[in-house]
């Protein structure tokens, strides 16, 4: 069983979509662009000291203004006032317990704050653990709960500098990984028909993503739609060649061959997953 979410404070910070600070009444507290960028970097490194040098680089790159340190301290002060309002406390308490000054940087403590991305990672790990233990249904429920936290692209209302761009990519990759793990588990449980419309949408959004196309091919094949499964392969192959000058991977070619030959292994869930894995040399 998943443990009770430990960050059960009245205040919320959401990053899986627009970056927002929400008080216990559900009211959104406004932030301005530069302090919001600082908050985004602190949230994506919650419970870690973010060096001042990282914050300065995120805000101004290598071309630091003479007033950079003073301006950063002003932004931190603005954030502390916003957090104090959201937590219904005073700035001194926030400074001592929530957004702390540490040697060489600042740290945002998650204690007493419900931070959605931390919740996402906890649910993701619990879901993966359930799948590894062979409990697909529990794993799927946990991964679905994790994915339901997303409200759009991460930090969508923050103009990212070089460091936040990396964090956005990390979060997007984690989301996609979680989604794929859920899809594979549902295919294992024979949910292929229910997945087709979702997979069609996902492959339209990501026209070069081979694994998602492979999952769609398997789902279509299991629904007796072999010609459509092969059409998905040929469309992807054309896109890969046209856009990148690449042929499909060996894994996808093996899946195409299995569909062409009506390989019985495609109907055996464990073997189907093996068909998508690289073979030992």
Write the layout of secondary structure elements.
Blueprint: E1 11-14, E2 20-22, E3 28-29, H1 33-43, E4 49-51, H2 52-60, H3 68-87, H4 91-98, E5 99-102, E6 105-108, E7 113-115, H5 116-132, H6 136-148, H7 162-188, H8 192-205, H9 210-222, H10 226-244, H11 250-260, H12 269-275
Parallel strand pairs: 1-7
Antiparallel strand pairs: 1-2, 2-3, 4-6, 5-6
Q: What is the H/E string? A: EEEHEHHHEEEHHHHHHHH
Task: Provide the number of structural domains.
Answer: 2
Describe the largest sheet: 4 strands, mixed
CATH H level, superfamily name of the largest domain:
Winged helix-like DNA-binding domain superfamily/Winged helix DNA-binding domain
Unreliable spans are: 1-9, 277-281
CATH-derived topology of the largest domain: Arc Repressor Mutant, subunit A
| Proportion of beta-strand residues | 5-15%
Radius of gyration of CA atoms, rounded to a whole number = 23 Å
Question: If helices are DSSP runs of H or I spanning 4 or more residues, what is the number of helices?
Answer: 12
Strand order of the largest sheet: 3-2-1-7
| Cα shape | elongated
Counted beta strands: 7
- For the record, the CATH class of the largest domain is Mainly Alpha
Distance between the termini: 40 Å
Give the CATH architecture of the largest domain. Answer: Orthogonal Bundle
Mean pLDDT: 90
Structural class by sheet pairing and helices: alpha+beta
Helix content: 55-70%
